[in-house]
Amino acid sequence: MSTVFDTKIEFLKGVGAVRAEILNKELGVYTFGDLLEQYPFRHEDRTKFYKIGEVFDDTAYVQMIGRLTSLNSVGDGRAKRLMGIVSDETGEMELVWFKGAKWIERKLKVGSWYIVYGKPQRYGYKLSIAHPEMDEYDQGVSQAKSGGLQPVYHTTEKMKAKSFDSRALAKLTRTLLEKVYHDISETLPEYLIKENNLISKGLAVAWTHFPKNPQTLQQAKDRLKFEELFFLQMKIIASKVGKRTDKYRGQIFDKIPTFNIFYKEHLPFDLTGAQKRVVREIYDDMRKGYQMNRLLQGDVGSGKTIVAFMCMLMALDNDAQSALMAPTEILAQQHYNGLKPFADDMGVTIELLTGSSKTKDRRRIDETLRDGSLKIIVGTHALIEDKVDFYNLGLCVIDEQHRFGVAQRAALWKKTSKEKPHMLVMTATPIPRTLAMTVYGDLEVSIIDELPAGRKPIITWHKFDKGRLRVFGFMREQIELGRQAYIVYPLIEESETLDYKNLEEGYESVSRAFPDYKVSIVHGRMKPADKDAEMQRFAEGKTQIMVATTVIEVGVNVPNASIMVIENAEKFGLAQLHQLRGRVGRGAEQSYCVLMTGDKLSKDGKVRIQTMVDTTDGFKIADADLKLRGPGDIEGTQQSGVLDLRHADIGQDSALLQKVRNIAENILDEDPDLVKEEHAIIKQQQSMLVRKSVTNWSRIS
Ligand code: ADP
Ligand code: MG
After folding, report:
1. Of the residues 615, 643, 677, which one is the last residue of a structural domain?
2. Residue with the nearest Cα to atom 19 of ligand 1?
3. Which InterPro entries does UniProt cross-reference here (predicted)?
4. How many distinct structural domains can be found in the chain?
């Protein structure tokens, strides 16, 4: 089944053994096909020529025509560099090379005219270009040669050192395209190409390397993105369709008398518009007759708990029980505390079950779960133990999705003799909708994107370590007003001892700085009981300052705590900073978050801190996080395939993703096994993709 694209790269004209080895090692290019898929990461517009006098240091890349008037080596040893001057009738420009000087000196001739291309920078009053590209200027010919959009390819330092640069790659790619263009076969059905105004695969590949103009480049990109997202969605949805054909019937929750009483008479506040919308989405889902699988996203404090409770009432109204499962004991406890007042108010039975539940309680819980008199159970993993049996589990709410695996979800499904329970997965880690759609292909997504009215957005500042005294001063003012404060230290597992020392020292210095106040300390090494007791003291206002590690990220709700100081804030990821900050701003008072850092911040570090200062919107933060880290580090993306996207950007191409998803869904609805003639091509490409990923794996190992 091998094709011309499997030809070894050394057989391409202009490659040979040496370059072949560089291509193998530096770029992972082994075959013709691999080289074609080394797409340029940008293109340069080489249609305009500047006069030197028109160039400023804020001009991006420019090309000029000038005469090389001097070329000299200056400096010694490491400081050695090659300096040149080009000039035209409007002025002079300095050129400098720090590397490859010998080769360049040999190539360039003083007195000749060149097309000079590069990014100018100002040094004092001089403009200078480092490592410019130099093309001998040969009137007439060069104009034609250098016109249009030039591809820029990724190359490595090693390649540059061997003057195997982007332009050399472009030349090879052009040679290759001329040779194999007609062998590039289509991968999408003809009707999809027509309906979606796409160009052919062959043209797309050719134009993504060598577009005639920006429009053709765009067409090429559109086509490649479409194809990429299409095959990804086909894969994801196919697994979902598999489930659908299994006919996961669901219980029908259409009677809602208790829900209505609660909603009309007991609800202590008005729901936000977003809460209402989400409750409606869930209700519509749970009476369809199919099992619900829904992700409920909502920022910290957006009011997910009440939504969950109202859904539990719907279950109860239809003779079903509900379970809420949380990843930690503290979190389970907090959910229980949050739900209990509502449940009590409605006379609904509710219990907490965790690993540390007493045997006596446990027995009662087991019994009432089995006979159906217990309506709501809140707990940890203990809930999925074999011993636990339900009378009729109808709704499962899972908090903090990312800590539960698919296997655990499935274990809960087995807990019922009737239809599988409806699943509502809640997360406060906002994931951009597009990413959620891609990653959780099997989940519908509901979003609470509105905070209850009257919340004061948390004010966030960035302060450097040297300003700590003033930060402490501010803390003191706030504490004197009766508020409480958190001081958080990072705790990174690999260096736990070190961080622990940081924390201890921090605790001591805080105690010294606030001798008249009481300081709590909480960290992951404490016994759960001690930890809880200390948290309790803080929650009751017996201590004013809580020095802690990130254990407080989940699990504490102290509305009177209105300041959070985060030490070494640059060490935290955006998602974590956001979760931490969510611990304040829960009461009526204005809350503050102070991010402390050292003077030196990495570029990403700066962006993270600035994002936190600029916004409290979890979705904006998640988007920024996605841009910074790529989807690779965001929970749950590892197996999803979004990591391998080369053309599309799920952040930016969300509209296309939505469209492609609908198309893929329709195809699989109509032709789940792709047996129709026009779909043969899809199957073919799918097996091609599988084959390719197998080859890639075998190369790695
Ligand atoms: P989270 O989404 O972080 O779980 P919670 O459900 O804990 O948020 O809600 C945070 C607080 O806001 C709780 O005290 C809750 O009672 C309150 N709350 C929820 N919805 C509303 C609303 N619509 N109006 C006012 N307060 C609300
Ligand atoms: Mg919550």
Report:
1. 615
2. 303
3. ATP-dep_DNA_helicase_RecG, DEAD/DEAH_box_helicase_dom, Helicase_ATP-bd, Helicase_C-like, NA-bd_OB-fold, P-loop_NTPase, RecG/Mfd, RecG_dom3_C
4. 3
